[in-house]
């Protein structure tokens, strides 16, 4: 992994003149939120899978995933509950890197992320296929804590954080739209923080 940190904290300029989205408060803390608590996982048993509308389905052990080409990025993090944390340093595999390894088919239009606790969340492929969307295993130079989604979570700095599954175990490429856990329960499917797209 490169020791250079790619700074993406100017991402907000695509959406607004203000780095802090409306309705958010800046915090230096990193609160822990999940739908049902932190699940157990075991390094020897953990697997990450890629399937669906791809040329090659993939399966990685924990060590194999950490051996993939990776990078470190500085990003902002926006929770739908109203807080934002600036300058988070995340390390892991970018979505485009993983998509290239799997060979995404031309008819793939949507992505569903799957997590160890049964959580799912969806995004259009076009919203995922950008360098800032990452599968993260390190945070601020240390292994990602379990309560923040370790061993692996997705980060989506251009969306509210519920679009970034914690404890992620796989990504499914879809030809038709499906809704994830919170999206089925009334949360916004687009989740743009600068438009305050919190609920449908």
TrEMBL record:
Top-rank lineage group of the source organism: Archaea
InterPro entries, alphabetized: OxRdtase_Mopterin-bd_dom, OxRdtase_Mopterin-bd_sf
Segments of skewed composition (Basic and acidic residues): 1-29
Residues forming coiled coils: none
Region Disordered, residue ranges: 1-31
Oxidoreductase molybdopterin-binding domain sequence ranges: 38-182
Residue spans crossing the bilayer: none
Protein name: Molybdopterin-dependent oxidoreductase
Species the sequence originates in: Halobaculum saliterrae
């Amino acid at each position: 992994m490169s020791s250079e940190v790619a700074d993406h904290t100017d991402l907000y300029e695509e959406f607004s003149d203000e780095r802090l989205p409306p309705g958010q408060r800046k915090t230096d803390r990193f609160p822990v939120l999940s739908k049902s608590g932190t699940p157990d996982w075991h390094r020897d048993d953990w697997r990450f899978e890629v399937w669906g509308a791809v040329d090659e389905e993939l399966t990685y052990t924990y060590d194999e995933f950490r051996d993939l080409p990776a990078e470190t990025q500085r990003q902002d993090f926006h929770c739908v509950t109203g807080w934002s944390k600036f300058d988070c340093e995340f390390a892991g595999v970018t979505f485009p890197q993983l998509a290239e390894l799997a060979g995404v088919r031309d008819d793939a239009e949507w992505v569903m992320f799957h997590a160890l606790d049964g959580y799912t969340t969806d995004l259009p492929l076009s919203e995922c296929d950008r360098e800032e969307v990452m599968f993260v295993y390190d945070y601020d130079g240390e292994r990602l804590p379990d309560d923040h989604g370790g061993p692996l979570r997705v980060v989506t700095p251009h969306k509210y954080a519920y679009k970034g599954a914690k404890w992620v175990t796989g990504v499914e490429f879809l030809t038709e739209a499906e809704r994830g856990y919170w999206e089925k329960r009334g949360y916004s499917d687009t989740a743009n923080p600068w438009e305050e797209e919190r609920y449908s």
